[in-house]
Amino acid sequence: MNAHDTSGTEGDGSPVTVLRAPIVLEYEYSAGQSASRFLRAIAEGRLLGQRCPVDGRVYFPSRGSCPQHAVTFGDEVVELSDKGTIVTFSIVRVPSKNIPLELPYITVNVLLDGADTILMHVLDADLDDVHMGMRVQAVWKPREEWTTSTENILFFRPIDEPDADYDSYKEHI
Amino acid sequence: MREVAVVGFTQSPSVRREPDRNEVEILIPVLQALREQTGLAGAECDFICSGSSDYLAGQSFAFVSGLDAVGAWPPVSESHVEMDGAWALYEAWVKIQMGYADTALAYGFGKPSMGDLPITLALQLDPYSVMPLWPDTISVAGLQARHCLERGLFTADEMAAVAVRDRGNAKTNPYAQVKGDFTVEGILAEPFLVNPLRKSDCAPISDGASAILLAAGDRATQICERPAWIRGFEHICEPMDFGVRDLGRSRGTEIAAEKAGVSSDKIDVAELSAPFTHQSILVERALGLPPETRINPSGGALAGNPLMAVGLSRIGECAARIFRGEADRAVAHATSGPCLQQNLVCVLEGR
Amino acid sequence: MGDERDMNTAERALTASHTLEYTYKRSLGPILSRFFTGLRDRKLFGIRRADGTVMVPPREYDPDTGQALDEMVELPGEGVVRSWSWVAQPRPQQPLDHPFAYALVQVDGSETPFLHVVDAGDEANMETGMRVRIRWAGETAGAITDFVFVPA
Questions:
Q1: Residue A6 forms part of a structural domain
Q2: Confidence class of residue B64 from pLDDT cuts 50, 70 and 90?
Q3: DSSP letters along B29-84, please?
């Protein structure tokens, strides 16, 4: 709201070469039907996907319509497990001020059991252990801290299950 | 030139605030209705072009999510304009003219209720010497209205009569937002919103979406019994500085109308997207409409103003009257920018 | 009259307040740099156009001919109101927190009115054709908000 924040200083004689005119806009954002349903469920610890009526694929998170067939999903939901398979991963050694994790950390694409689309998240595991096909499960915040936010899931962690078959996730790499 | 026609048109209702659906969820039913009307409204089209503004959504690249509504996998031939959907339609028409497509979908969508629209639109102004003063849309339009009033180009009564006409016409439009039996006396008794403009001089703020399907030649007559053939299509831009423009006329509309061939024959219907009553008068004069032309039978922008779709809907409203045999020749107008800075004119015929 | 919704089957959606900020610095270039340096030093500059007239704020190129422009012309800080809108309820972003006018002001020696602010106190003090003069801010920074106009 401050259009007076400019670089010049009166009387110092140097030319003004830069203008700062900050733009600050306030919005009341609406999540819409599909994301609201998803977020209300995650506040109860439930992960909701939706099934495409054309090919039966399960989208998670759902945006309310199939981006391939351009049809709405309607009201039917598919409840998913919080266990899944690592489809691919990356080890991050560059800091980002939006990620409060110590470096290096692991980002993963997780294919949740029952879903046909991948979820991007972070993994708490030894760098030497992480691999494609690894079975993982979500680690949630304490129940009393759950809100209508995907931040209810802190990260994923490996579980003691045999690796998934490559064929079961290869189309999601 | 190829023969290209509007063969389908659908729209959402204009509403002051749609709190429960996001932009894409407003758009999806509009495209589904277009598919029911024409048989195609998404990836089946040779080309897809949309008009929207990330500033309205408050999200960068918000238009990309609109592709969920068309089904963009496998990938489609697609483009986007940060303009009203009428300009998206223009790009689609050019694509067909160049022979790269026989069918094309254009859609526009916007949800300005999420922000403070009159302030958001200050970002259209020169970012160095004007925008930092944050002139709101209504104040900027007021400068033009007073200029016209004090030059004697028209009176406040004539401005009010535009609102009376448009909102009366809108009574039969189920998609319109502001409609009813207004009177000139009643409007002139309203307090000023921003002197010299009263609330009734201003278009409402509306959430909404609309979509048009274009087709060339035989495809057009296969899809639509009575296509609305595009006989002229032009858009013209005026400079940024108010001081070098003539705010007492819409020079850009005059040039666009001449290039689009508006004056060559009778005009049954004209649909204008002028968002203020005084601008409607300026556009009517610039188009050179004959007295028998029916202006804004849908109510125009003053009855429903879904930004980024309102101009496209004017073309659609003209086309729909040609589909139904209610008009043989129609002229649609769309605008963007402060004080009618950018103007688009489209001439449609039923033969 | 009023809102009509055909979407009444929808459930209430979740909403959240959201602030979007663009905090860019803009490079001024040679012409606008001289204009804004002038404002910081409490001087108003226009630029001479191809036809010999003067426009303010200056532009790098003539709006009619596209010809590059370079001759800056210092203008007096007063002029005439050519049109105005009365803002009875200013928004938080706007330059004054009390009612004021946005106006097209044609300063003496220039042929192109430009949009600025007139702090006139009351709507009744506004009239097209009235004389106005610049009132500089207590501190100038090289911005279009370094001044407002007041009735002369």
A1: no
A2: confident
A3: HHHHHHHHHHS--STTSSEEEEE--HHHHTSTTHHHHGGGGT--SS---EEEESS-
Average pLDDT, chain B: 96
Report helix, strand or coil for B101. Answer: coil
The CA distance from B315 to B7, in Å, is 11
pTM for this one?
A: 0.94
Chain B residues inside the 8 Å CB shell of C55: 241, 243-244
As a whole number of angstroms, the distance between CA B29 and CA B69 comes to 9
Contact check, Cβ <8 Å, B243/C6 = no
Is A15 a domain residue? no
- Can you list the residues of chain C whose pLDDT is less than 50? 1-8
DSSP annotation of C97 reads: S
Whether B236 shows a pLDDT value over 50: the answer reads yes
Using pLDDT thresholds of 50, 70 and 90, give the confidence band for residue A8: very low
Q: Is residue B327 part of a domain?
A: no
Domain count, chain A: 1
Instruction: Classify residue A164: in a domain, yes or no.
Output: yes
State the average pLDDT over residues B146-151.
98
Residue span of the structural domain in which A133 resides:
32-172
Neighbours of chain A (3+ CB pairs under 8 A): B, C
In the predicted model, is pLDDT for residue B98 greater than 60? Answer: yes
B171-175, B238-242, B278-282: range with lowest mean pLDDT? B238-242
Q: Which of A6, A26, A35 sits opposite C19 (nearest CB)?
A: A26
> Does a structural domain hold residue A11?
no
A29 contacts in B (CB within 8 Å)? 58, 114
CB distance from C140 to chain B under 8 Å? no
**For chain B, how many structural domains are there in total?**
1
Q: Side chain identity at B314, as an amino acid letter?
A: R
Q: Is the pLDDT of residue A4 over 50?
A: no
Considering CB atoms only, which of C11, C18, C142 is closest to A16? Answer: C142
Residue among B272, B228, B251, B241 at smallest CA distance from B342: B251
Interchain CB distance below 8 Å, B143 and C20: no
| pLDDT of A159 | 97
SS3 C45: strand
Best to test chain B binding among A2, A17, A23 (most B CBs inside 10 Å): A23
Q: Least CA distance to A20: which residue of chain C?
A: C25
pLDDT in tens, B300-315: 999 999 999 999 999 9
A74 Cβ partners below 8 Å, 6+ apart? Answer: A53
